Protein backbone atom coordinates (compact mmCIF):
# COMPACT_ATOMS: atom_id res chain seq x y z
CA UNK A 1 0.00 0.00 0.00
CA UNK A 2 2.81 2.44 0.86
CA UNK A 3 4.48 1.75 -2.47
CA UNK A 4 1.20 2.52 -4.25
CA UNK A 5 0.76 5.75 -2.29
CA UNK A 6 4.31 6.84 -3.03
CA UNK A 7 3.80 6.14 -6.73
CA UNK A 8 0.46 7.97 -6.92
CA UNK A 9 1.72 11.07 -5.14
CA UNK A 10 4.94 11.08 -7.14
CA UNK A 11 2.93 11.05 -10.36
CA UNK A 12 0.77 13.92 -9.07
CA UNK A 13 3.62 16.26 -8.14
CA UNK A 14 3.39 18.47 -11.24
CA UNK A 15 -0.38 18.97 -10.88
CA UNK A 16 -0.75 18.98 -7.10
CA UNK A 17 -0.13 22.70 -6.62
CA UNK A 18 -2.94 23.70 -8.97
CA UNK A 19 -5.59 21.27 -7.78
CA UNK A 20 -5.04 20.69 -4.05
CA UNK A 21 -7.12 23.69 -2.96
CA UNK A 22 -8.75 22.03 0.11
CA UNK A 23 -5.32 20.87 1.29
CA UNK A 24 -3.94 24.40 0.90
CA UNK A 25 -6.81 25.92 2.88
CA UNK A 26 -6.35 23.31 5.60
CA UNK A 27 -2.60 24.02 5.85
CA UNK A 28 -3.20 27.74 6.27
CA UNK A 29 -5.77 27.15 9.01
CA UNK A 30 -3.59 24.58 10.82
CA UNK A 31 -0.64 26.97 11.10
CA UNK A 32 -2.90 29.80 12.26
CA UNK A 33 -4.41 27.63 15.01
CA UNK A 34 -1.21 26.06 16.34
CA UNK A 35 1.10 29.12 16.21
CA UNK A 36 4.31 27.06 15.85
CA UNK A 37 7.77 28.41 16.56
CA UNK A 38 11.38 27.24 16.32
CA UNK A 39 12.30 24.11 14.40
CA UNK A 40 9.19 22.64 12.77
CA UNK A 41 8.81 19.19 11.21
CA UNK A 42 6.41 19.30 8.24
CA UNK A 43 5.29 15.67 8.36
CA UNK A 44 3.94 14.49 5.02
CA UNK A 45 5.18 17.76 3.57
CA UNK A 46 4.14 17.24 -0.04
CA UNK A 47 5.22 20.29 -2.00
CA UNK A 48 5.37 22.46 1.12
CA UNK A 49 1.95 23.96 1.88
CA UNK A 50 2.44 23.98 5.66
CA UNK A 51 6.00 25.27 5.50
CA UNK A 52 4.94 28.22 3.33
CA UNK A 53 2.54 29.47 5.99
CA UNK A 54 5.04 29.24 8.86
CA UNK A 55 6.27 32.51 10.41
CA UNK A 56 9.61 33.60 8.91
CA UNK A 57 11.45 32.91 12.17
CA UNK A 58 10.57 29.19 11.96
CA UNK A 59 13.04 26.63 10.63
CA UNK A 60 11.03 24.07 8.58
CA UNK A 61 12.14 20.55 7.77
CA UNK A 62 10.13 18.25 5.50
CA UNK A 63 9.40 14.52 5.54
CA UNK A 64 7.53 12.69 2.80
CA UNK A 65 7.19 9.12 1.58
CA UNK A 66 7.18 10.27 -2.06
CA UNK A 67 10.59 11.01 -3.57
CA UNK A 68 9.24 13.42 -6.18
CA UNK A 69 7.11 15.31 -3.64
CA UNK A 70 10.17 15.68 -1.42
CA UNK A 71 12.26 16.80 -4.39
CA UNK A 72 9.69 19.53 -5.12
CA UNK A 73 9.75 20.54 -1.44
CA UNK A 74 13.54 20.83 -1.45
CA UNK A 75 13.44 23.25 -4.37
CA UNK A 76 11.87 25.76 -1.98
CA UNK A 77 13.07 24.73 1.48
CA UNK A 78 16.59 23.78 2.62
CA UNK A 79 15.97 20.60 4.60
CA UNK A 80 14.05 17.37 4.19
CA UNK A 81 14.31 13.60 4.15
CA UNK A 82 12.53 10.69 2.47
CA UNK A 83 10.96 8.72 5.32
CA UNK A 84 7.91 6.89 6.63
CA UNK A 85 5.77 8.72 9.22
CA UNK A 86 5.47 5.44 11.12
CA UNK A 87 9.27 5.16 11.56
CA UNK A 88 10.79 8.61 11.76
CA UNK A 89 14.62 8.71 11.56
CA UNK A 90 15.05 11.31 14.31
CA UNK A 91 16.03 11.30 17.96
CA UNK A 92 13.46 12.03 20.63
CA UNK A 93 12.45 15.70 20.92
CA UNK A 94 14.32 16.73 17.78
CA UNK A 95 11.79 19.42 16.79
CA UNK A 96 9.95 22.15 18.66
CA UNK A 97 6.73 21.43 16.77
CA UNK A 98 5.49 18.72 14.44
CA UNK A 99 2.73 19.69 11.99
CA UNK A 100 0.95 17.27 9.69
CA UNK A 101 -1.66 18.30 7.15
CA UNK A 102 -3.81 15.84 5.15
CA UNK A 103 -1.32 12.99 5.49
CA UNK A 104 -1.74 10.89 8.65
CA UNK A 105 -5.02 9.33 7.47
CA UNK A 106 -2.87 7.39 4.98
CA UNK A 107 -0.89 5.86 7.88
CA UNK A 108 -1.40 3.47 10.77
CA UNK A 109 -2.34 6.03 13.44
CA UNK A 110 -1.23 3.69 16.23
CA UNK A 111 2.30 4.10 14.85
CA UNK A 112 2.42 7.56 13.28
CA UNK A 113 0.85 9.51 16.17
CA UNK A 114 3.30 8.18 18.80
CA UNK A 115 6.17 8.90 16.41
CA UNK A 116 5.04 12.50 15.93
CA UNK A 117 4.79 12.95 19.70
CA UNK A 118 8.16 11.28 20.25
CA UNK A 119 10.12 13.71 18.08
CA UNK A 120 8.35 16.89 19.30
CA UNK A 121 9.49 19.02 22.25
CA UNK A 122 6.55 21.40 22.59
CA UNK A 123 3.55 20.35 20.54
CA UNK A 124 2.00 18.52 17.63
CA UNK A 125 -0.60 19.99 15.27
CA UNK A 126 -2.64 17.74 13.02
CA UNK A 127 -5.24 18.31 10.31
CA UNK A 128 -6.79 15.26 8.71
CA UNK A 129 -10.08 14.34 7.05
CA UNK A 130 -12.40 12.25 9.22
CA UNK A 131 -15.62 10.27 8.83
CA UNK A 132 -18.27 12.29 7.05
CA UNK A 133 -15.83 13.33 4.32
CA UNK A 134 -16.76 12.44 0.72
CA UNK A 135 -19.89 10.85 2.12
CA UNK A 136 -21.08 8.78 -0.84
CA UNK A 137 -17.72 7.40 -1.98
CA UNK A 138 -17.03 5.02 0.89
CA UNK A 139 -13.54 6.21 1.81
CA UNK A 140 -12.61 4.78 5.26
CA UNK A 141 -11.69 7.97 7.07
CA UNK A 142 -11.17 7.56 10.85
CA UNK A 143 -13.72 9.05 13.21
CA UNK A 144 -12.82 12.04 15.39
CA UNK A 145 -13.39 9.84 18.43
CA UNK A 146 -10.84 7.29 17.20
CA UNK A 147 -8.18 9.96 16.89
CA UNK A 148 -8.97 11.76 20.15
CA UNK A 149 -8.89 8.48 22.06
CA UNK A 150 -5.29 7.99 20.93
CA UNK A 151 -4.08 11.29 22.38
CA UNK A 152 -6.24 11.36 25.52
CA UNK A 153 -5.76 14.27 27.89
CA UNK A 154 -2.82 15.63 25.91
CA UNK A 155 -5.21 17.33 23.49
CA UNK A 156 -5.20 21.07 24.20
CA UNK A 157 -7.96 21.79 21.69
CA UNK A 158 -9.71 20.32 18.70
CA UNK A 159 -12.35 21.45 16.23
CA UNK A 160 -14.09 20.18 13.13
CA UNK A 161 -14.43 22.21 9.95
CA UNK A 162 -16.05 21.46 6.59
CA UNK A 163 -13.81 22.30 3.63
CA UNK A 164 -15.50 22.20 0.24
CA UNK A 165 -13.89 20.75 -2.87
CA UNK A 166 -14.51 23.62 -5.33
CA UNK A 167 -14.90 21.46 -8.44
CA UNK A 168 -17.79 19.80 -10.28
CA UNK A 169 -18.11 17.29 -13.11
CA UNK A 170 -14.90 16.29 -14.83
CA UNK A 171 -12.93 18.84 -12.82
CA UNK A 172 -13.96 16.94 -9.69
CA UNK A 173 -12.63 13.71 -11.22
CA UNK A 174 -9.43 15.54 -12.16
CA UNK A 175 -9.09 16.79 -8.58
CA UNK A 176 -8.87 13.22 -7.27
CA UNK A 177 -6.52 12.16 -10.07
CA UNK A 178 -4.22 15.18 -10.05
CA UNK A 179 -3.78 15.28 -6.28
CA UNK A 180 -2.96 11.57 -5.98
CA UNK A 181 -5.96 11.05 -3.68
CA UNK A 182 -8.09 8.71 -5.78
CA UNK A 183 -7.03 5.58 -3.87
CA UNK A 184 -9.52 3.91 -1.54
CA UNK A 185 -7.24 2.26 1.07
CA UNK A 186 -9.78 -0.41 2.04
CA UNK A 187 -9.85 -1.73 -1.51
CA UNK A 188 -6.36 -0.70 -2.58
CA UNK A 189 -7.59 0.50 -5.92
CA UNK A 190 -8.51 3.65 -7.79
CA UNK A 191 -12.00 5.02 -8.28
CA UNK A 192 -14.22 2.64 -10.28
CA UNK A 193 -16.14 3.65 -13.39
CA UNK A 194 -19.33 3.66 -11.30
CA UNK A 195 -17.77 5.99 -8.74
CA UNK A 196 -16.54 8.29 -11.51
CA UNK A 197 -20.04 8.39 -13.02
CA UNK A 198 -21.41 9.25 -9.60
CA UNK A 199 -18.98 12.15 -9.33
CA UNK A 200 -19.98 13.39 -12.77
CA UNK A 201 -23.71 13.18 -12.15
CA UNK A 202 -23.90 14.23 -8.53
CA UNK A 203 -25.53 17.53 -7.59
CA UNK A 204 -23.88 17.20 -4.19
CA UNK A 205 -21.06 19.46 -3.16
CA UNK A 206 -18.31 17.14 -1.97
CA UNK A 207 -16.52 18.24 1.18
CA UNK A 208 -13.80 17.11 3.53
CA UNK A 209 -14.75 17.10 7.19
CA UNK A 210 -11.42 18.02 8.75
CA UNK A 211 -10.34 17.52 12.35
CA UNK A 212 -7.84 20.11 13.55
CA UNK A 213 -6.03 18.94 16.66
CA UNK A 214 -3.35 20.43 18.89
CA UNK A 215 -1.54 18.05 21.23
CA UNK A 216 0.71 18.99 24.13
CA UNK A 217 3.94 17.09 24.62
CA UNK A 218 4.22 15.86 28.19
Detail the topology: elements first, then pairings.
Layout: H1 2-11, H2 13-19, H3 21-34, E1 39-43, H4 49-53, E2 59-64, H5 67-74, E3 80-82, E4 95-101, H6 109-118, E5 120-129, H7 144-151, E6 155-164, H8 169-178, H9 193-201, E7 207-216
Parallel strand pairs: 1-2, 1-4, 2-3, 4-5
Antiparallel strand pairs: 5-7, 6-7
Helix pairs in contact: 8-9
Total strand count, please?
A: 7
CATH level 1 class label: Alpha Beta
CATH A-level architecture? 3-Layer(aba) Sandwich
Specify the overall morphology: globular
Distance between the termini: 33 Å
Please give the largest β-sheet: 7 strands, mixed
Total count of helical runs of at least 4 residues:
9
Q: Spatial order of the strands in the main sheet?
A: 3-2-1-4-5-7-6
Extract low-pLDDT stretches.
none
CATH level-four homologous superfamily name: Vaccinia Virus protein VP39
Helical content class: 25-40%
Structure notes:
With 218 residues, the protein is α/β, with parallel strands linked by helices. The protein has one domain: Vaccinia Virus protein VP39 (Rossmann fold, 3-Layer(aba) Sandwich), CATH 3.40.50.150. The chain has 9 helices and 7 strands, in the order αααβαβαββαβαβααβ. It has helices spanning 2-11, 13-19, 21-34, 49-53, 67-74, 109-118, 144-151, 169-178, 193-201; strands spanning 39-43, 59-64, 80-82, 95-101, 120-129, 155-164, 207-216. It has a 7-stranded mixed beta sheet with strand order 3-2-1-4-5-7-6, with helices on both faces. Helix 8 crosses helix 9. The model has no long low-confidence stretch (mean pLDDT 86).
Amino acid sequence: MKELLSLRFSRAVETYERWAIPQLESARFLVKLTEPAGRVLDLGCGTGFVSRFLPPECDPFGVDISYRMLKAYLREFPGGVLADAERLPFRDRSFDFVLSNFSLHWTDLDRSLPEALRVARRGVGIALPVSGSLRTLGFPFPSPEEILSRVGERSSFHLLREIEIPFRGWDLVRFFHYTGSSINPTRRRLLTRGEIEELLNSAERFTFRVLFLSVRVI
